[in-house]
User: What shape does this take?
Amino acid sequence: MPKKIYDVVVIGTGAGGGTAIKTLCDAGLKVCALNAGRRLDPEKDFRFHRMPWEMKFRGLDDPKRRSESYGYLDNEYTKAGWEHEIPFTTAPGTKWMWPRCFSVGGKTNFWGRSSARFGDIDFRAASLDGYDVDWPITHDEIGPYYTRIEKMIGVASTVQNRPSNPDGSYLPPFKFRCLDRILEAGCNKVGVPYLPDRCAQLTQPHEGHPACHFCGECTTGCDVGAFFSTPWFFLPKAEATSNLELRTDALAKNVLTDENGHASGVAYIDRRSKQEIEVYSRSVVVAASCVETARIMLNSKSRRWPNGIANSSGQLGRNLCDHLYGESARGYLPQLVGRPPFPDHVGDSTIAWMPRWQNLKDPQEEKFIRGYSVYPDGGCEEFPGFANELEGFGSSFKCEIKRRYPSPVSFGIQAPSLRSETNYVDLDPEVKDPYGIPVARLHFQWDENVLKMWEHSKQVCAEVLRAAGGVLEDNSDDPQIPGFSLHETGTCRMGNDPMQFVTNRFGQTHDVPNLYVCDASVFLNCTDKTTTISILAFSLRTSEYLIENFRRGEHKAA
Amino acid sequence: MAGQGIQRREILRILGTAAAVAQFPGFSKWTFACGHVGNAALQIKPAVYHPQFFSSTEYGLVERLADMIIPSDGTPGAREAGVAEFIDFMVAADPEVQYAFRTGLTWLNAHSERRLGKRFLDLPPEQQTSLLEPLAYKEKARPGEDEGREFFHRFREYTVNGFYTSEIGFKELDSPALKFYAESPECPHKDDPEHLHVSHPIS
Assistant: This one.
C-alpha cells in the first residue's frame, strides 16, 4: 500500500495551529494535525461553575502537588489541561517558568483574552529609536487580517484613537464598574489613559456563539464558548470539512526531510503506545508555541541541516523576548469601603486597560525606549485575598473584611523585554525527555530597559492611585519570573534577509520553502500588547500564502 | 453550543456540582455546607468528625482558635462553616506545614500556662483574647513571642481560606462572584465619577 501523503501537517492546535488548520481545511487541503495532549471535555475538565467548596482542596490545590504547579492558570480546576511531563533546563543564572497546555486548543482554552493589535509604532520601533531592526510588515498589510480575525472571534472594545493602538471593529465594550470610574478620574488627573480593554469576550451573541454570562470564570475554561478558543470556534469547522485528521497525544519530535532538505512530514511520539510514528506531507506548519517550536526545529537535524532545520542563519532559537509581569502597585479605594458588593469580576481582569502612554510623541522622552501597558483590576473577587494583610481577629476583623471587600485595587504591568544576544533557547546537550529527545534549555535575563519600565510603572501607578483618592498599600514587589506571562516571542523571527532571519515576511522559512511557522516565534519582539490576536492574524496570512503556493504548484507531492 | 440558554446551563451546572461533591464524602459540616445541591444523599451528616491529623485535644484548640478569629456573632462564623475540619484536612495533606502547626499549638499552651497558669482552653474568654492580641496586632506585640506571632498569622490564614471558600463565607460577603448576569454590570453612579457622595451602608 502506498504511504498516505497529506497536503499539510500542522504541529499544534492552539491560536496559531488552530487558525492554520481551519484556513487550510476550508481551502480544501488535506490536513493532519498533531496535538501533544488530549481533547478536553468542558463538562469534566473546565471549572464548569463549580464553587470552591465543591472542590476537594477548595480550589487551593493539593499541597503535595504545589511544587509541580506551573503558574496561575494551572490550578485545581484546570489541571487536566496543563501537562509538564516534558522537562526543560535553564542555564546558570536563568529563571524561567514554562506553563504548557498540551490539550487540544492549547492555551486558547484558558487565555486572558486581551486583544490589542500591534501597530506601526511597534513594527517601525527600530527606525524610531535605533534599537534592533524593523518588522518586515506594516499595519496597512496586516490590518485587514486583524479585521477578519476580529470578526471571527468577537472583540469587545471601543474606538480609542490612540497612537500606539490601531482601532479595529468591536462588539460593545464591557461597562465600567465603580472602581473603573474612580481610577479613570485618577488617571485623568495624572494624564494617563484609562479605557475599555480590547477583550475577546462576547458581550452579545456573535457568529453563532452565545453571549457571555459574566460569571468571571473565563481563565478556568468557558463551558459555553462565549470567548474565542480554537476548540469552540475553529476546530469544529475544520472537522466539518472532512479534510482534517486530528491526532491527539502526538508529541512532535522532528520535521522529516527529503534528499533536498525539504520538509516531507513529521516524526512524532504517540504518548499512549510510546512508539515513534512518521506522518508524511507536502508541507509542514510548525505552531507548537515559541519555545517548543524552536526545540522541534533544533531537533530536526539531518545531513542537510546539521544545526536544525531552516537554520542556515544560525538564528533559530535566538532572540527570545518575553513580557515582564508584576503588580506595580496595590491598595484600596476608601470610597468603596462599606459599599454593598458589586459584580466586579465578570471580565476576569480585562475590563479596563491603561494602554501605552510613554514615548509616543518622542521615542526617547523617557529613560527607557518603547513602552508598556497596565491592566488595573480589583473590587469584589471570588476570594478576599486582601484579608491576610489586615490586622486582628474576631468580630472587628470579620466586619473589616466585609467592609473592605469591594475596595481593593491593583495594577499589573505588561512590559516587553528587548531583543538580546544572550536571551535564547538551545538544546541541552545532556538532558533528554522520557522519550529520549533532547530538551530545551533557556537562557534569559531581564534587560535594563524593561526593569526601568518596571520602576517607572510603580511610581506612576502609585500616583494614579493617590490621585484617585485611594490608599497605596504596597508598590515594592519584585516582578514575576520570566515565562510567567506566557507571551514569549522570537526564536524564528521574520525578515527579508535570509542571513539574519529564519522566516520571510510570510512566515515561510527562507531555507525550506515548504516549511512555515505560525506562532509567536516569528515576531521580532513582544511589544506592549498581548500576543494571541496577532498570532491569529499572522497565522491567517501565512496560511493563505501557503494555500496560494499550493495553487501555483509550488508544493508538489513528495 | 449556540443558543444554549441559562436554564440548560443551570441543569448542567447542577449535574456537574453533584458529581463533584459526591467524590468527597466524610466531612460533616463541610458536606452540609453543600446542601444547595438538592441531593438528599449528600446531606447525610456524620455525627462526629474524626480529625485526620490533629489529636482530639489539639483539635479542640483548633476549633476554638478558628471560632475566635471568625466568630459566630449574628452571622455564622468559622464554627458553622466547618473551618476546623478544613484546617485539619489541609494540614493532613501537607507534610511541610505539619510541624509548624503542631509546635505552634504546643507553644500556645505553654505560653498560656507560663503567663496565666492554665492551658489555653481552660482560660475564660477574656483571658484567651488577651493572649492572642499581642500576636495579632503589631502595636501590642511583646518581645519573645515571635514564634507565636508567626504561628498565629499562619493559623489565621488557614482560617480565612477555609471560611471564605465555604458557601457560608460566600454568603457572609454576599459574594457576587460566579453568578450569571444578563449584561455587563455597570456602575450606577453616573453623576459622581469619583464616588465622593455614595453611601456606606456596611459599618
